[in-house]
Amino acid sequence: MTEVTPFYDKKVQCLACKHSYSTTKIRSRFVKVKGHDSDFCPVYGCDELNPLLYNVSVCPQCGFSYTDEFTKYIVPVLKTDLEKKISRHWQPQDYGDIRSIDEAINTYKLAAYCALIKKEKKITIAGLYLRTAWLYRKTDEDEQERRFINLATHEYIESYLNDDFKGTAMSETKLLYLIAELLRRQDKYEDAVKYLSKVIEKQHLSTEPKIVEMAKEQWYEMRESFKEQKRNHLA
């Protein structure tokens, strides 16, 4: 009987140049989630079996990199842009095998660049930046993690203001909470409180009571922290 391994090869076709290639994925039955950080970063039982490392497909021929969140169609003028800005400078390399964290970070940066050129939704670009931050968290590179959290926050706020998250898997409740949490992680407490307040104001419209509860807890903690700071300031 053949032993089933955690990894398998998935055949994909590049959205840009139509080249067919294989990329590694992890079978879901081998993935063990122990919990989540407050910004929804999954904590896996095994660092090697982390699906985040394999989220991005990178075409070895032209360099176009994407995730399942990308729209499949590329407008001809943007295809020309991708060719000019990526394919012409691409040194053929293969990200199709087992990936290290550093290699996975490179794939997310490539995908974010492709998403910007292809004019993907803000919510998609934000997700790429956030996952890059999560991987930097694994390597304890605090400055880089903060940099990508900042980039993600900007895109998530744009997505919220322009309603570009509508019709995706991201709900308004989750988006507002996530923006607040990312702002809090950058020590922008006043802005964070504003977004948490929006979650609480709209709680009657939400179907995600757990996220509403998380927002209330964070709001309460930050309010107490403000009071403490004021007391210390006056003392």
From TrEMBL:
This is DUF2225 domain-containing protein. It comes from the Bacteria. It comes from Rossellomorea oryzaecorticis. InterPro entries: DUF2225, TPR-like_helical_dom_sf. SUPFAM superfamilies: TPR-like.
